[in-house]
Amino acid sequence: MSGETDSAILAERAREQLARRAHLPWWYITVLGVALFGMLSAPLLSHLTAWADAYAVVMWPSVLVLVFGDLLLRRVQGVAFSRKTLRAYPSTRRAGLTFLAVGVAGVVAVNLLARADLIGPGFAVAVAAATAGTGLLWGMNAAMRRDIRDGRGVATS
Fold first, then answer.
1. d(CA 12, CA 140)
2. Least crowded by CB within 10 Å, which of 56, 65, 111, 127?
3. Per residue in 128-147, is it b (16+ CB within 10 Å) or e — as a string?
4. Is 32 exposed, middle or buried (0-12, 13-18, 19+ CB in 10 A)?
5. Range from 34-43, 59-68, 84-93 that averages highest in pLDDT
6. How far from chain centre, in Å, is Cα 85?
7. Are 63 and 40 in contact (CB under 8 A)?
8. What's the CA gap between 53 and 135, in Å, rounded?
9. What angle do CA 123, 125, 127 make, to 5 degrees?
10. How far are the Cα atoms of 29, 46, 69, 99 from residue 41, in angstroms, in the given order?
11. CA-based nearest residue to 77, from 136, 17, 137
12. What's the CA gap between 150 and 95, in Å, rounded?
């Protein structure tokens, strides 16, 4: 009986340690927010300038920041968490789907506002959507850590 109890305690400790490692550092949240804002505001900057490549100059660095930020995060955490977050961590689904909806709504709204020459409101929408997306990512991470602590989440290595 004692062996089963000891194993359960060890498993619980291991899950707790893994959940702590899954915490997002402040720099990642900040970089993600700036990159999301860059991606959302790219159509506005392109509309404001006569330079045809303004969209690409903002969009591609933002995408690269997200990709390399994710790779750096994996290196810092030392654990490769599942890329299929919504499947691997059931509690992330609500925040994850809301994140996607906010992103799509933000892109559509900013593009419509840019076409209507409503640049100020477009930037306000970009800030709001990037802030909401960043908050939702933080919420997804908290849900993922809960799932790991409860034994419902997985890590790939």
1. 21
2. 56
3. ebbebbbbbbbbbbbbbbbb
4. buried
5. 34-43
6. 11
7. no
8. 30
9. 70
10. 18, 9, 20, 17
11. 17
12. 18
Query: What are the CA-CA distances from residue 25 to residues 10, 21, 38, 62, 82 (Å)?
Result: 26, 10, 20, 19, 18
- CA atoms within 13 A of residue 155's CA, in its CB half-sphere: 19
Which residues lie closer than 8 Å to 102 by C-beta, 6 or more apart?
129, 132, 133, 136
Q: E strands, 4-154, where?
A: none
Q: Give Rg (Cα) of the chain.
A: 19
Tokens representing 108?
């559509």
pTM: 0.82
Read off the pLDDT of residues 1-14 as tens digits, 9 standing for 90 and up: 466 678 888 888 88
User: What is the Cα–Cα distance from 127 to 14, expressed in whole angstroms?
Assistant: 39
**Cα 72 from Cα 129, distance rounded (Å):** 24
Each domain of the chain, given as residue ranges in start order, spans 2-149
- Report the pLDDT value the prediction gives residue 155, as an integer from 0 to 100: 54
